[in-house]
Amino acid sequence: MIAMFFWAFVIGGLICVIGQLMMDVGKLTPGHTLSILVVAGAVLAGFDLYEPFVDFAGAGATIPITSFGNSLVAGAMSEAEKHGVVGVLTGMFEVTSSGISAAIVFGFIGAIFFKPKG
Prior knowledge:
Keywords: Membrane, Transmembrane, Transmembrane helix. By secondary structure, the chain is mainly alpha-helical.
């Protein structure tokens, strides 16, 4: 159990370090960094490499933004098997809609209760 926590911490930290290096050394904007990490997760999922990564690292692989790309591809692939080409588009939205909806709702609630300083 301790090893599971260790690897989740190390792998999640390494993903964050990669993102930070992309911004600091590569001088990429946060938007570019975010996009690259999402695409990297999607590419790994497309080659069936992200799920073994999740099995090994647990939350260290499911919490960072790379898992969003994995979710997009996993949803698209599962729906494509059921519904063909149309399933590729609907699958991406079906799998990720709850997370996006929650972010919108909680962001709105946070904006109601907290005022930015400024």
